[in-house]
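New to this. Please check this record:
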Amino acid sequence: MRLPRTRSRYRPRPRPRHRCAVAALLLLPVAAACSATGGADPDQGAHAPADGAAVDDKGRAKPPVTDFNGDGYADLAVPAAGSDVGAAKGTGSVSVVYGGAEGVQLPRRKQVFSAASDDAVGRLLRTGTGAAATGFGSQSAAADLDGDGNTDLLLSLDGNGDTRSGPKTVVLWGSRVGLGSPILLPPVAPRPGDFDGDGHIDLLAHGHDGREGMFVLRGPFRRDGKPAGSTEVRGGDWGDATGPGAVTVGDLNGDRYDDVVTAQGFEEERYKDYFFKGGPDGLSAKVADLDAYNALGAVGDFDCDGVGDLAVQESGKAADAEETGPPRIQVLRGSTSAAPSGARTLDVPGAAGVTGEDTDVALAAADVDDDGCADLAVGVPGAAGGGAVTLLKGGAQGLSGAGARTFTQNSPGVPGNAEAGDLFGGAVRFADFDKDGHQDLAVGAPGEDGAEPDSGAVWILDGTARGPEARPDGLSFGPEALLAPVKGAGAARNPGTGFGAAFR
């Protein structure tokens, strides 16, 4: 469905301001990273603060905002790794939109990076990698690596068989004027978190210095990308891979150290997820098995007990088993004395018609109504009619489908009309873009038609006291509104440019 061109500004209605509750969301496709109570922000990685760090007015740990220019408003990065740049197919681009007092305002507050950019990033991509580099932004993470108060952005860059083109990691440093000052690093597939509780963001990585296994690169980081130190994380069996296949980061025992959950396997067999506990010395080598086979999820305090819980999409032991019905959500309860356990499974209202390869979901967690319990947004891009997003409510008994709300492009107030293949819900993220104390919800649809077929689009649902709402003056935009590339090489599960398939 081609989006209306009139939705160019986001003007939320004035509301009384109050302190923001702890928020959370899922980073796809690389990894989720979350912090403990109420929820957290895996797009930028978790930072469960050490004693004396920031808490909200109810004493709950406050994860940092993804704020590339340090103005206190949440910002949003939208990688589009399949974008064609000029005649170069699938080179990739990354768009950034900035929050403010009136939320996300377009086209005034934005940046677009690609090999065609007339800036330091474009010059680096053209001269530092060679013409063969592709897939800019296919993996990404956001965190304040150097502790200057501005979130930084890490972006992968694929190669085509030569060492000059990649794979590499591009770091864009945050500043008061936005992202820039790029540097190139070796590929590290990073997942941010504070695993030793020292108040500095660390990076969990595999493939560090060309070695197999999983490593923690300790923060703070210098501007040349050098960490304060590095430590190998022992205790895991990665099967036939060099490291974990998926990772979620977050505080799952309430001690304000980030923990790690990983997924791994051998050929068609999935191993049980591993749980690595964070502490003063970093991640422990004493690994616990979890009763789950999918580590790509979200962390939030869904049962209001002060300890983060883990939500993942239910998966079986056989990696090649075809799913036969709608996706389901599995929740493991966090504990102050043991690894997450007590797995229970929930159906997702609004996931009708999902079968086969269309079963993947996107997850984001946040306390959207400030009741002290994290809620869960479930993006179901394969839902009948072009995709859907369902909001599951948290409560004293944990997540529940009771009172769930589902948004589609046919919902009142959501711009556009639903069409098969739009993939609405391909990415979801909670963030307070206007700093009014309510969590807004960003929703991506990489299959949405715009200036070109499958150019992709993003919607912002306005946060209110009862959760996100679709409003007639809400914002929706595609890459054309940002003057970003609109054509893309596409991929089997990620058509066109990939705009709207992931957020940071």
Q: What stands out?
A: The radius of gyration is 20 Å. DSSP finds one helix and 30 strands in the chain.
